[in-house]
Amino acid sequence: MKKVTGYIQRKTMLYKTGVEYGDYTMNHVQGCAHGCKYPCYAFMMKKRFGQVASYEDWLEPYLVSNTLELLDKEIPRLKDKIESVQLCFT
Q1: What pLDDT was estimated at residue 42?
Q2: Strands 6-8 and 62-64: what pairing?
Q3: What is the pLDDT of residues 47-75, one digit of tens each?
Q4: 10 Å Cβ neighbour count for 39?
Q5: Phi and psi of 31, rounded to 5°?
Q6: Which one, of 21, 26, 58, lies nearest residue 39 by Cα?
Q7: Contact 84, 26 (CB under 8 A)
């Protein structure tokens, strides 16, 4: 099993989506430990917006260190709007 490379912080944890299988998404890890043969949608979006430089960098997972603090703030504010949350498990 791949070890965590390090830690990052985010400004928000719950993101509104436009997909039918989840109205919000939560990604508590940046990167992936799987190392699939073909890059996935998550990698392509992070690369597109300049948040990861290469697929090799993507294969070094970082945990979001302030996940619990963010959820403590966001869940009470969004509790009446959230029906489902798509979770990322890498």
Answers
A1: 86
A2: parallel
A3: 999 999 999 999 999 999 999 999 999 99
A4: 14
A5: 110, -175
A6: 58
A7: no
